Amino acid sequence: MIKKNDTKEQAAKGIVSMLLNRVIVKAVSFITKLVLARILFPQDFGIVAMGMVFISFLGYMNHFGFGEAIIQRQKKSEKYIDTSLVFLSCVGIALFVISWILAPLIAGFYNETVLKTIIRILAISFILRGVSIIPSAVLEKELAFKKVLLIEICSIVMYALFAISMAFMGYGFWSLVWSYVIADAVKALVVWIVRPIRFHLTVQWNILSQLFKFGREIILGGIISFILLQGDDALVGKVLGAGILGWYVMAYNISNFPAVNVAHIISGVAFPLFAKVQKHKVELQLAFVKITKIAALFILPATAGIFLLGRIFTKVILGDKWLPIVPALQILCIFGILRTVHILFNQILIATGQPEWNRRILCIDLILMVLIIYPFTKYGSIAGTSIAMSLAILPGAIISIIITLKKVKVTYTQMLNQLSPIVISCLIMGAGVLVMSRSLPETLSTLIISIVSGFFLFAISILLLDKQLKEEILEFIHLLS
Length: 481
Fold this sequence. Notes:
Number of domains: 1
Oligomer: single chain
Helix content: over 70%
Number of helices: 17
Largest sheet: none
């Protein structure tokens, strides 16, 4: 029997470790993109985004959900590791070959000849990821978060160094292409150094069948999720061109940065933790409530800040050439919140062996997106695309909440009691930031003052409104010490 205190302490230590360390990784990635945005042009980001649509689609075939299957299994899984590692390595090579063959067709679709070479270079990552997915999954299964973060830090630092250096030397979009491959190469190398695996070059077909049985729902959900989350890039690139796609990609990345990245950081802890306590209802409920509250504590104020300070941030940090992204950026903040619900709430369904719900919810979102995205994009440009994407995933977010709360037996009243102090604090912070930013000129000093004042307004408000949260923060500080 897993004790409540053990589960709570494991969750707290895991989340604190992930947040303090992985925030560094995500911050380096985000700052790198901002630096590149000052050096490069929207066209550069757009042309690479076109290639990434194809690479990301095939990327879902690169893992087949086997990593999640390894984590979800509670029994020893050496034979499963052998089979999945050998199989995925072969799949990585196959995807590289497929990409090489299909690259001219993708280039023709967008009428961009250079895409052929871009896709063939990016496809090298399939081979690198094929040999690194399973060792990474084993580390997550062992809750070895510090090792996982070490790998990510090495990868992102090399990405930043190569990307910025090449951009300064005038390589344009090639700096984005090669840094992507270098990052995956470093990750593959370090993961095998940190967590070497002794394996046999065999594939047991009965085990492979079991892995597919679990992983098929993950991969189907992943493909649907890809179409839902990157189909907009393909459409914008085809209809509006590479330059406007570059604007859209930047608006998407900035607006979704706090919501999606914090959600992925926390879900990195949540999935193996939920899988570990899936048969213990009380521990599962406690872990879900705690993790949801911590996610909201970071995501809601950060996203509200980006929404309110979107224009001044774009003007001061990125430059005037990026100002057309502001309306789309603000609309996509709403999309980011809704996407967070998908990421966090669906993790508990997958971890408890019900991945089919994730696919069903994504299918609903996908149908809505297909129906509305083209007219919204054609007549509303990237702002229209942003509205369409937000409307498309709204029903799925609501369904995710209903099903997940029912699964963990948490009432709506309980969740509202947990989240209402955070929402009220965001409103107080938002009012202060809005007054501050509107009364001062659009300068770097105004941006800094607005961010700092907003932070303190939120911190003071939440500590006054939620005494329990203050105790939890003190508990986290104690764990760190």
